[in-house]
Design a protein that fits this description.
heterodimer; A: mainly alpha; two-stranded antiparallel sheet; 15 helices; B: alpha/beta; 6-stranded mixed beta sheet; 4-stranded antiparallel beta sheet; 11 helices; 10 strands; 36% helix; 24% strand
Chain lengths: 357, 261
């Protein structure tokens, strides 16, 4: 590629006016131009659509929105990790298996440590048991992410291939441990005190995910870590020449994906009161879709955290809406797949138009 | 011209390579190449394709290690093992491909790898002081008379000339002893090239040594203080630029002088 030189290139003082012409557009314009903003608009349209079409407008109820938020929490946690990793040009498609394996290990520990119910239906050391279960989930997720990280960052294996491999391994281990049957019998407090607990109108797990999203948004925009993440994804050579330790950075991002998957694993236990070993095959697809339709670039260098939230919202709304309408939920899978492809196509077109400009 | 390295006065060296040799398998990229850059001067390094310019540059940058010969940076003999070690000695390079991340803003590009963090807890969490960075980047760009639309726009919005200027400004900002430039005018038009050449003088006037590898002989000859010509891995010519014409340089590049002497 050869840069085409403009003979009247404005880098001297005499044509300074010329330069000001391409100054940064105002914040409102940038916000409207961002791909993620349109997904928010689409979310609102979808809500109106299902509200109008559902019998007695049942779609428009606090209960329904709480259920949708809870459904979206796990996807959002996974999506956030993937968004950050995509920023540096990497991807983790093993997050679904990571979630399942972390949840299985957490559940095993909780079931064994909780002991037997006493006469009044209570457990000894209940609080400690649940905290321990949370720690086990997060540690398992972290270790999973670290293994991905070592393979991707230090063995320089393409992240798609590496995590495709570990996804199979993770699911296999989870099935070996459980024999394919879900682990139930967790103390009901995991649901009442966390999974189904609400703060005001918002389910606690969803609140946790939103706080994490806010933190990551700030990290991307204001910290050294965020700048370096985008630099690596934008042009790895530039990051290397600037003296950044690129492998170490990719390793941290893979761990971040793992930590978030581990948290999502605990949320899964708290949501259903048991593991859902076979319920997460499409989680990675849903999370990647959410991130990409939200305006995060697959090739790296550009991340939209709000976009990931709106994108997750769209997937959840479609599913919830179809259920309310009495359509087979399998349609949601098809819809999500279509939305992913359409979003990536639109992104391509935008990218090419910019390249031709 | 028995030995170019000996003719250079040794005190006050920004960066120098002396009697460097390097081979890659059967290829002898450098046999006996020397170049010396003193603070405040622009040295042009000319040579035909395959003469060893890139190899010499990579040795000076710590990317390759020489098989023989010595490296001097800031008056001290050094044996660097990595590019970051050389950067630590105050040497920076403008690569031909620039290597600027297109999605980063101008400010973030200037500071990549050298980000300034805020004071206190926020700083420990890695929160950058973007206002301070912007002010300092703005001042640095002004000092080099580089005008950019806004320091918040992404690099992808800049023209080729603006990117080149940004890359030079970045290198100048983080170098304390010398700046190496690899074909800085190769992708530029006439007017932009003239501006970049002016920039070389500005940089040198700030006390940095500037080494320019280029094929743009007429233009670079005009701004250089001294010229070194490589021919088949050897230094074939080292002269003050004022004594040379373009044909002299071309003759040395194709080995005319080396064969005649």
């Amino acid at each position: 590629m050869k840069a085409i030189a403009d003979e009247r290139d404005p880098i001297t003082p005499d044509d300074a006016d010329d330069i000001r012409a391409i100054a940064e557009p105002p914040a409102v314009v940038r916000w409207l131009a961002a791909g993620g903003t349109w997904i928010l608009v689409l979310d609102i349209i979808v809500v109106i659509f299902f509200t109008v079409l559902s019998t007695n407008h049942v779609f428009w109820s606090l209960q329904n929105f709480q259920a949708l938020m809870l459904d979206g929490t796990e996807t959002l946690l996974l999506a956030l990790g993937i968004a950050m990793f995509l920023g540096a040009g990497g991807i983790d498609i093993s997050v679904g298996s990571n979630l399942v394996l972390s949840a299985v290990l957490g559940a095993e520990v909780i079931v064994h440590v909780a002991g037997t119910q006493d006469a009044r239906g209570g457990y000894p050391h209940l609080a400690w048991t649940l905290i321990l279960g949370f720690v086990v989930c997060v540690v398992a997720g972290t270790v999973y992410g670290a293994i991905n990280g070592v393979i991707i960052a230090y063995f320089r294996v393409n992240s798609l291939i590496a995590t495709l491999g570990t996804a199979g391994i993770g699911t296999g281990i989870a099935l070996l441990i459980t024999g394919g049957n879900d682990i139930g019998g967790l103390p009901p407090a995991i649901q009442s005190d966390f999974g189904l607990f609400t703060v005001g109108p918002v389910p606690l797990p969803a609140l946790v995910a939103l706080v994490i999203a806010l933190v990551l948004w700030a990290v991307l925009r204001t910290t050294r870590f965020g700048i370096r993440t985008l630099a690596i994804g934008s042009l790895r050579l530039a990051a290397e020449r600037a003296g950044l330790r690129v492998p170490r950075h990719l390793f941290s991002l893979a761990i971040l994906c793992g930590v978030l998957a581990g948290i999502a694993g605990f949320v899964d236990l708290a949501h259903f009161g048991s593991t859902t070993v076979n319920g997460h095959t499409n989680d990675a697809l849903a999370a990647i879709t959410a991130v990409v339709i939200g305006g995060t670039r697959l090739e790296g260098g550009k991340v939209s955290i709000p976009g990931a939230i709106w994108g997750t919202g769209l997937a959840v709304l479609l599913q919830g809406g179809l259920v309310v309408m009495g359509v087979a939920p399998f349609w949601q899978l098809i819809a999500v797949g279509i939305v992913l492809i359409v979003a990536v196509c639109l992104d391509r077109i935008r990218f090419q138009r910019r390249a031709n400009a | 011209m028995a030995d170019p390295a000996e003719t250079a006065p040794s005190p006050g060296i920004a960066i120098a390579g002396k009697h460097l040799a390097k081979r890659f398998g059967h290829v002898r990229a450098l046999i006996d190449a020397s170049v010396t850059v003193r603070p405040g001067e622009v040295v042009a390094l000319f040579g035909d394709n395959g003469a060893g310019k890139s190899t010499l540059l990579k040795i000076l940058l710590g990317i390759h290690r020489p098989d023989a010969g010595t490296l001097v940076i800031d008056d001290r003999e050094v044996r660097p093992h990595s590019i970051s070690e050389v950067q630590g000695l105050g040497v920076d390079c403008v690569h031909q491909d620039l290597a600027l991340a297109p999605d980063l803003s101008v400010v973030d590009s200037m500071y990549l790898g050298h980000e300034v963090v805020r004071k206190g807890l926020a700083g420990r969490l890695g929160v950058v002081a973007r206002r301070e960075m912007t002010a300092r980047a703005d001042a640095a760009l002004r000092e080099l008379s580089i005008k950019l639309p806004s320091l918040a726009v992404p690099v992808s919005d800049l023209s080729g000339g603006q990117r080149q200027a940004l890359a030079v400004a970045r290198a100048v900002m983080w170098s304390r002893t010398s700046v190496l430039m690899d074909e800085p005018t190769a992708a530029l038009g006439a007017r932009q090239s003239a501006i970049v050449c002016e920039l070389m003088r500005t940089v040198a006037s700030r006390g940095l040594g500037v080494l320019v590898v280029s094929h743009d002989i007429p233009r670079v000859l005009k701004v250089a203080d001294r010229v070194t010509v490589l021919w088949r891995g050897r230094s074939a010519l080292e002269e003050p630029a004022g004594n040379l014409t373009v044909p002299d340089v071309v003759a040395a590049m194709v080995g005319y002088q080396a064969e005649a002497s």
